[in-house]
Amino acid sequence: MPEPVHVFPFAFGDPLSLPLRAVGIWPFSALVAVTASELQVRFGPWSLRTPLRNIASASVVAGPGWLDVVGPPRVALRDGSVTFATVRRRGVRLRFLDPVPGGLPLSFVRHPSVTVTVKDPEGLVALLDTLLRPG
Q1: pLDDT for the residue numbered 106
Q2: What span, in angstroms and rounded, lies between the C-alpha atoms of 39 and 44?
Q3: Residue 46, class by beta-carbon neighbours within 10 Å (0-12 exposed, 13-18 middle, 19+ buried)?
Q4: Residue-range domain boundaries for the chain
């Protein structure tokens, strides 16, 4: 029997997110899926996946800047974290124990964290807290 999947769609509606469609990021192609064992982010043609046991923390954070919303994923030069953003509202930052590939097509580029702008950031954090800290 397959594991239940919890799906968190990305939030859309910011006028700055219109250019995302040009690079293949649409409401139907941008989501975070969580099972009891894995987290997967799909952001148009980009994806990131990691076992849940690799997630060190999940927290709601202030929304990204306008530059993060107008195109493909952004990789921070200072620490290599990646942002998948569709709106400037709040997002969820996930920090990893071991960096993971996903923001660039080159698999050797690994990211210590990811920020995603899902519709329900509190719900995603609550689910991950429940799955990561049972009992």
Answers
A1: 58
A2: 16
A3: buried
A4: 6-132
